[in-house]
Design goal:
The protein has 207 residues and is an alpha+beta fold. Helix content is 30%, strand content 26%. The protein folds into two domains: 141 residues, Electron Transport, Fmn-binding Protein, Chain A (Pnp Oxidase, Chain A, Roll); 38 residues, no CATH class. Strands 2-1-5-6-7-4-3 form a seven-stranded antiparallel β-sheet, with helices on one face.
Length: 207
């Protein structure tokens, strides 16, 4: 692919362009979870998990449940339960090949987010997973994250996007349903069947 005009090719050129790091931005990075991090995680019902395979192919995956669904095992270890999905397990395959992960925790109504970076492993230990059961279903797997660094991220992105502002929500009819999208993209099922499958999954297979 032809190189784009003005492309940044090295860290020095990037730093020259954007300037020095704010000293507080450097100092705020922790190597363990303090009480503010733990309290934020306890309030968070949603996170995004970033991972990459051995070739550097990146992936970002949503994870969500009731607030506090992520367990703080200790100040340097998190446990994220696996909930029922489509069995693609992209993130887990990536972790087996390359254990580095990044997490961003969100709390509805709070503009700031919490970022946690570390290394991950998979566990099927019943002693760890049994307490995470919901509706009598014990998770098959848990993702254990060894914390390397944790820090709060300012709210500029969420403020600019008005993510939590009810006035910015679109009418649901302005965008196709997932059933329609799956039907169009796969040509393997009609929209009505795809919709029925999704509705049944949302109703009976969340856990």
């Amino acid at each position: 692919m032809e190189q784009a005009s003005g492309q940044i090719e090295d860290a020095g050129a990037l730093r020259e362009l954007v300037g020095a790091v704010n000293p507080l931005a450097e100092r705020k990075v922790l190597t363990a979870l303090d009480r503010h991090c733990r309290d934020f995680i306890a309030l968070s019902p949603f996170l995004v998990l970033a991972s990459a395979d051995a070739q550097g192919g990146a992936d970002a995956s949503p994870r969500g449940d009731a607030p506090g669904f992520v367990t703080v095992l200790d100040d340097r270890t998190l446990l994220i339960p696996d909930r029922r999905g489509n069995n693609r397990v992209d993130s887990y395959l990536n972790v087996l090949a390359s254990p580095g992960v990044g997490l961003i925790f969100f709390v509805p109504g709070v503009a700031e987010t919490l970022r946690v970076n570390g290394t991950a492993s998979l566990s099927r230990d019943p002693a760890l997973l049994a307490p995470l059961a919901v509706q009598d279903r014990v998770p098959t797997l848990g993702l254990i994250v060894a914390v390397r660094e944790a820090f709060f991220h300012c709210g500029k992105a969420l403020i600019r996007s008005k993510l939590w502002d009810p006035e910015t929500r679109i009418e649901r009819g302005r965008f196709p349903t997932l059933g329609r999208i799956i039907a169009d993209q796969t040509q393997a099922v009609d929209a009505a069947e795809a919709e029925a499958n999704l509705e049944e999954a949302y109703r009976t297979r969340l856990y």
